[in-house]
């Protein structure tokens, strides 16, 4: 079954107001459709669906005749047909990279993340269509989410700026120090009188975001909202609710899609948990 799916190509990904379906054409011409419930602002994932959708990795049309082992960089520009997906469709990046050997299981697949990020972009676009917007990505964890999200903010705000600054509280461990460290990249003058959207990868204890929202308010922002890809409610120490949330996150230390463990795994296009033997316990 998995082999079959691995050989498949994702034909379409449809979104409705209350469900999201992945439809794949499998080599033997059968169809697979998976649905997840999508309730309001927060996507309630179903574990079995996520694991299933993870294995739907399609090959780029230009890769069809290449062995899987051939690196993508050997393809020339001309090999890539310029197909621009309609703005309203999730951005399915066809690829077939093996799961990282130190990853235990994929919790949010690349396809699912991309679909949800596109959806959040449209929600944000609708809310800011008549105002200016300063999108502030919180480094390093939110670098990937921010760069994907801004491409999907539509309708376009009257004007939009994108910037980043660095805040951290975890160091090389898996627990928050509770002290949020900012570096000099944050300049208060840069947010004065602006409508700020803070973009974060994850809310865990809530220390980082409660500190950052207070900081924006002190700096004189006209308004402050928060978009967080993941919300790990079970670990909250300080009450905090984001304005735009991607997914509820299970109570596990997760990595990937910008999120690290001791600076590793930020490059992964999906989010998963690390195998126990690769976590250092003090
Ligand atoms: O809700 P909290 O418990 O405060 O956790 C959330 C924060 O933790 C992570 O940052 P980290 O300190 O690991 O820095 P990084 O973004 O550079 O990885 C993450 O990117 C959030 O900023
Ligand atoms: O689950 C997590 N993983 C990585 N970094 C984090 N920072 C807060 N929570 C997490």
From TrEMBL:
Annotated segments matching region Disordered: 76-96
Keyword line: Cytoplasm, Glycosyltransferase, Magnesium, Metal-binding, Nucleotide-binding, Purine salvage, Transferase
Short name of any one Pfam family annotated for the protein: Pribosyltran
This enzyme's EC code(s): 2.4.2.8
Single GO MF annotation: nucleotide binding
Entry-linked InterPro entries: HGPRT (IPR050408), Hxn_phspho_trans (IPR005904), PRTase-like (IPR029057), PRTase_dom (IPR000836)
Name of the protein in its database record: Hypoxanthine phosphoribosyltransferase
The organism of origin for this protein: Volvox africanus
NCBIfam families per UniProt: HGPRTase
Superkingdom assignment: Eukaryota
Similarity comment text for this entry: Belongs to the purine/pyrimidine phosphoribosyltransferase family.
Cofactor(s) needed by this chain: Mg(2+)
GO cellular component: cytosol
Reactions it catalyzes: IMP + diphosphate = hypoxanthine + 5-phospho-alpha-D-ribose 1-diphosphate
Transferase among keywords: yes
């Amino acid at each position: 079954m998995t082999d079959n799916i691995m050989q498949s190509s994702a034909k379409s990904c449809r979104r409705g107001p209350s469900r999201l379906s992945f439809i794949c054409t499998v080599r033997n011409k059968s169809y697979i459709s998976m649905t997840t419930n999508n309730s309001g602002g927060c996507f309630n994932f179903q574990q079995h669906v996520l694991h299933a959708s993870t294995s739907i990795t399609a090959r780029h049309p230009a890769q069809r005749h290449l062995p899987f082992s051939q690196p993508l960089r050997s393809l020339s520009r001309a090999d890539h047909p310029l197909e621009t997906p309609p703005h309203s469709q999730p951005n399915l990046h066809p690829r077939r990279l093996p799961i990282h050997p130190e990853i235990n299981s994929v919790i949010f697949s690349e396809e699912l993340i991309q679909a949800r990020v596109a959806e959040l972009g449209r929600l944000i676009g609708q809310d800011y269509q008549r105002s200016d917007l300063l999108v502030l990505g919180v480094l390093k964890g939110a670098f990937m989410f921010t760069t994907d999200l801004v491409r999907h903010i539509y309708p376009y705000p009257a004007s939009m700026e994108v910037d980043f600054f660095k805040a951290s509280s975890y160091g090389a461990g898996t627990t928050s120090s509770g002290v949020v460290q900012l570096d000099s990249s944050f300049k208060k003058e840069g947010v004065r009188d602006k409508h700020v959207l803070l973009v974060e990868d994850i809310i865990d204890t809530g220390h980082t975001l409660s500190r950052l929202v207070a900081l924006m308010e002190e700096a004189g922002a006209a308004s402050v909202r928060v978009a967080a890809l993941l919300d790990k409610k079970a670990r909250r120490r300080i009450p905090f609710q984001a304005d735009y949330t991607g997914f509820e996150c299970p109570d596990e230390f997760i990595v990937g899609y910008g999120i690290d463990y001791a600076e590793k795994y930020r490059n992964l296009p999906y989010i998963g948990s690390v195998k126990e033997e690769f976590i250092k316990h003090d």
